[in-house]
Inverse folding.
């Protein structure tokens, strides 16, 4: 990692974990690179195991360890657990994922700053207002700052959401740059 760049990690928690890393210039706070991927938790677990959720939590820990080691994020933005009235029980799983992610992020870097955002806040901040997945993809794909570094059309909806979450964190850093003073060890 270059000395004049820090990484903002965006996480879209779920069974399909969306990950987006924005590399940002320390002086200008401009994006200099974006890398995204999706981790399908079911691909990493033994389905015959009696405790599938525990297996998924352990996979999340491995992912966070690798992200912390490879990208050394200074700032993490992630979707907060929220109640979806169509799937009310989903908040239990989502809440456990966000808790495990936050715990592991601090385990591997106790100085990392973690910001949790409600989906509506992310949509409002990036300028989409009320939007479905297609609207979010269209808006983020047309964002000149984002699309000069990555073509989101070929990415999963989880990568698009993770990028929007990371971008929300970056916009807050630009608005409140003093947050950066507390980074480091």
């Amino acid at each position: 990692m270059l000395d004049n760049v820090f990484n903002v990690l965006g996480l879209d928690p779920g069974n399909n974990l969306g990950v987006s890393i924005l590399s940002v210039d320390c002086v200008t706070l401009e994006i200099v690179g974006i890398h995204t991927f999706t981790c399908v938790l079911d691909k990493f677990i033994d389905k015959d195991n009696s405790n599938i959720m525990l297996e998924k939590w352990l996979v999340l820990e491995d992912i966070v360890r690798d992200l912390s080691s490879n990208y050394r994020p200074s700032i993490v933005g992630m979707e907060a657990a929220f109640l979806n009235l169509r799937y009310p029980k989903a908040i239990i799983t989502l809440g456990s994922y966000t808790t495990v992610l936050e715990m592991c992020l601090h385990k591997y870097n106790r100085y990392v700053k973690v910001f949790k955002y409600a989906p509506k806040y992310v949509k409002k901040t990036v300028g989409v207002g009320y939007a479905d997945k297609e609207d979010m993809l269209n808006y983020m794909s047309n964002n000149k700052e984002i699309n000069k570094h990555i073509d989101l059309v070929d990415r999963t909806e989880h990568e698009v959401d993770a990028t929007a979450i990371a971008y929300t964190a970056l916009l807050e850093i630009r608005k409140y740059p003093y947050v950066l003073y507390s980074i480091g060890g």
